[in-house]
User: Which sequence fits this backbone?
C-alpha cells in the first residue's frame, strides 16, 4: 500500500510539473498589455440595452444591440454549454450589427447575470425545451415576433427546440457544431481520443488556476485561445478586457450551471422526426475534425431538415471562433439576406 501511495504521489508531482512547465508560449507583449488593462479604466463591454426576461420563475439577462437606421431583422445568439453572453466574440457580434441587424445575446439560466437554479435535482433536471423557453421569453420581453437563430453546440440544440415549438418565431436557423440527437446510436459519439487530447491541452492551463488572481485568469483565456484557434487575429487587449469585465462586474463562470446544462442535453431525445417537418431556411456549419460532436451529426441534420445547406470546415474541431472566422460570418450573413 505504501508503494502504491508513493507511486501515486510521484505521478501527481509529475503532472503538476508538466502543467507548470508546459503550455503555449504567450506573445512577448502579453504582460505589458495586461498591465495596461489592469491599471486602466475598463471599457463598457455591454453597449446595448439590457434587461431581464421572466421564464419558468427565473430572471434571464439579455442585451439588445441595435444598428444604425432601421434593422434588417433580428439575430438571437444562443451559446453553448456553460457559456454566458460575453463568450460570443465581440468581432462576431459587431459583424451582424454592422450588416444592419439587431443582435440579442443572453445569459443561459445558471450563467452570467441570469438566475442560478437552486435545489436542482439530477433525477429530474430541466430540459433543452425549458431552456428554449428562456430564449422565447427574451424575444417576448423585447416584443420581437421573429428572429434569425444562431446556435452553437448545445445552443444549436436549443435553437432546434425553438424552431420545433415556435416555427413562426424563426426567420432562419444557423446551427453550428451541433446534433439532432446527441445519443444517436447510428452515429459516432465522443471518442476516447477527444478526452485524451482535451486532458493534454487542459493540463498546461492549470498553472494559471493554481496561481490565481486576475492576471493569471486573463493569461489562461489567452493561452486557451491560442490552443483552440492559434495566434491568427489574436487580440490580447480585447480578451484581457473581457475576462476582467466578467470578474469585476459580473459573476464569472458557474461550473454547476455547466453540469446542469449537460444533464439537459443528456436527457433530450431525438428531434429527427419533428425536424423533418420544418419549413425554416437552415444552414449547418460543422468542422470535419470535430471529436466532441462528430461531423456526421451535422451531415445528418442536412439530410433531415428540408432544404438545409451545409458548410464543412476542413480540419476544424469543436472550437469557436473557428479559423477564418470572418469568412464563416460572411456566409451566415448571406444566409440571413437570402431568406
Assistant:
Amino acid at each position: 500500500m505504501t508503494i502504491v501511495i508513493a507511486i501515486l504521489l510521484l505521478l501527481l508531482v509529475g503532472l503538476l510539473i508538466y502543467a507548470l512547465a508546459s503550455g503555449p508560449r504567450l506573445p512577448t507583449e502579453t504582460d505589458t498589455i495586461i498591465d495596461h488593462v489592469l491599471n486602466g479604466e475598463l471599457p463598457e463591454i455591454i453597449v446595448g440595452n439590457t434587461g431581464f426576461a421572466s421564464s419558468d420563475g427565473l430572471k434571464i439577462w439579455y442585451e439588445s444591440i441595435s444598428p444604425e437606421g432601421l434593422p434588417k431583422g433580428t439575430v438571437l445568439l444562443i451559446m453553448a454549454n456553460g457559456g454566458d453572453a460575453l463568450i460570443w466574440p465581440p468581432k462576431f457580434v459587431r459583424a451582424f450589427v454592422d450588416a444592419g441587424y439587431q443582435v440579442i445575446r443572453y445569459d443561459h439560466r445558471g450563467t452570467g447575470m441570469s438566475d442560478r437554479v437552486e435545489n436542482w435535482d439530477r433525477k429530474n433536471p430541466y430540459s433543452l425545451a425549458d431552456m428554449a423557453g428562456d430564449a422565447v421569453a427574451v424575444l417576448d420581453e423585447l416584443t420581437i415576433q421573429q428572429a434569425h437563430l444562431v446556435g452553437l453546440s448545445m445552443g444549436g440544440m436549443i435553437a432546434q427546440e425553438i424552431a420545433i415549438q415556435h416555427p413562426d418565431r424563426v426567420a432562419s436557423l444557423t446551427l453550428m457544431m451541433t446534433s439532432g440527437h446527441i445519443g444517436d446510436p447510428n452515429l459516432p459519439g465522443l471518442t476516447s481520443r477527444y478526452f485524451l487530447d482535451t486532458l493534454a491541452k487542459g493540463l498546461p492551463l492549470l498553472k494559471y488556476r493554481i496561481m490565481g488572481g486576475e492576471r493569471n485568469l486573463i493569461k489562461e483565456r489567452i493561452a486557451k485561445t491560442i490552443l483552440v484557434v492559434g495566434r491568427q487575429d489574436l487580440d490580447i487587449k480585447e480578451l484581457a478586457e473581457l475576462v476582467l469585465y466578467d470578474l469585476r462586474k459580473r459573476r464569472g463562470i458557474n461550473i454547476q450551471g455547466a453540469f446542469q446544462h449537460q444533464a439537459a442535453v443528456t436527457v433530450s431525445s431525438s428531434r429527427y422526426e419533428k425536424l423533418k417537418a420544418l419549413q425554416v431556411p437552415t444552414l449547418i456549419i460543422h468542422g470535419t475534425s470535430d471529436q466532441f460532436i462528430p461531423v456526421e451529426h451535422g451531415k445528418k441534420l442536412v439530410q433531415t431538415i428540408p432544404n438545409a445547406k451545409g458548410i464543412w470546415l476542413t480540419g476544424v474541431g469543436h472550437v469557436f471562433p473557428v479559423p477564418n472566422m470572418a469568412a464563416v460570418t460572411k456566409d451566415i450573413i448571406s444566409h440571413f439576406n437570402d431568406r
Observations:
- Strands lie at 49-55, 58-65, 74-78, 102-106, 147-152, 170-176, 282-287, 309-313.
- Residues 2-338 form a domain with the Rossmann fold fold (CATH 3.40.50.1820).
